[in-house]
Amino acid sequence: MAAPKKGRRPTGAQGRPGRALALILIAMVALTAGMFLTHQTTPRLGIDLAGGTSITLKAKSEPGKPDAINETNMNTAVGIIERRVNGLGVSEAEVQTQGRDHIIVNIPKGANEKQARDQVGTTAQLYFRPVLAFADGKPIAPQPTPSTGASGSPSPSASTSGAPKTDGKGQSPSPSSSATSQGRAVPEALMATGSPSPSPSASESKKADDKAPTPTPSGADAAVADLQAKFIALDCTDEKQRAAVAQGVKPGDATLACGKRGDTWGKWLLGPAGVDGKDVKDAKGVIDTQRGQWIVTMQFTDKGSDKFAKITGELATKQSPQNQFAIVLDNEVVSDPYVSQALTGGSAEISGGFTQETAQDLGNMLSYGALPLSFQEDNVTTVTAALGGEQLKAGLIAGAIGLALVVIYLLAYYRGLAFIAIISLVVSGILTYEIMSLLGKAIGFALNLPAVCGAIVAIGITADSFIVYFERIRDEIREGRTLRPAVERAWPRARRTILVSDFVSFLAAAVLFIVTVGKVQGFAFTLGLTTLLDVVVVFLFTKPVMTLLARTKFFSSGHPWSGLDPKRLGAKPPLRRSRRTGAGTDAATVSAPVDAKEA
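Request: output the structure for the sequence above.
Response:
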């Protein structure tokens, strides 16, 4: 009889179970060490378990753009909001559309929750506009005594660096002019921007002959006078006036804007936009180590760099406040730095008065761009941590009940084999917990209630793999084989079935993850993860442990409580075969099951 070829393991070979068990033990120790090194010893919880805020945003139609609310713009807005919130380090912020014109944003409770709430619906329409005039936020009361115009006000110290700078309150130190000087500065500044010639200013009319006839104002002059009147009357301390101050204004038009200087409101008359937010390639809030303060650095595109150099070059030749440009975000002035020279090179920085939060907020919104639509908060719901704790408790109770039912079934039907299944489930649970904890730090994964449901369903999937293997072993024993060869001969058949079953489960989880959004993805992700872990546990733990236990007397002898009693399984008598010796016909009997490869 030919012996098996060298280097080829026979079917009944038992392998080296110690290596597989050592490998999975090393993996568990490494994952545990990773949890402590990253200080992430528990999984992050989602909004439905840890509490947080759910915001419903409704898209608003812009004047003259009735078709702006469409699927493309809504999906673009979802992507921008998601990047903004994730840019603040918020874990598991869910952003999804609902219906035609609503977006749902779920922000889990955490340190950056307030920042994220402030940014989700901010349109972030950004423009760099030249400053024509500035005054305190209150309406300007006319005074009979004439005074110098805004251009005659003392000029602040010019910036000598290559980036615009502001004062210690986040705004440049442009002086406040008196009421009448600001009123007269409006038409003069508008004329300097290339707007249609306004009607004569008050200072010019004093030089004219008192008896000269007053010209009839043209349409352009009337528009300038109207803007001047609005600037004088504007009250930026009134929230309603701030909200309506620049509605419907185009980037190429002169406009009014409000903003804060320190704790007080100010108002600006601004020229046409010189640089657009789309011209900003990158922006971020960083700490200036030399000055010990937070700044916002900006990088412009090629076109943006040219535009920025042009506007700063024009402003550098003027006096305060017209040597400043205002950074206007969603019709609000967030800074109005002044310049003393053209800033070329495609980069700039905004400094002065920023905290870490305000610098990062501004940089984050500038980096991720403007929303294609305007939104208003339609509904804000706060989920308390207490409610989340109750839901988590209910989920854990459901999981415990499901696990208990599986254990009872295994004990009743498989007896001693149930021990292998239970410790395999424990190993699978430990690996799942460790990986979920580390994924919270690595990719922002957060455990929500659907994800808990996915883990509960995975208990059945994992137990099913054990059952497949156990039944294959029992089939071999029924055929009359002893336990040790039965364990090895059953494995190839069980392995194929387990792999096919887990592949189908993983494929279903992957498809569900791709085609769904929101919390359902948590269910699909957990289901897919636990399915992969099922393969790892069965191959590296269950099979090696079964091989080792098959060598013990309790299992190999077919003890009634082992779950492998040949009598209870209805095993056939031992296989026999005949072998001719010489020319005779007598047969030698063999009591153990033997096949061609084992002979």
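The first strand starts at residue 52 and ends at 60.
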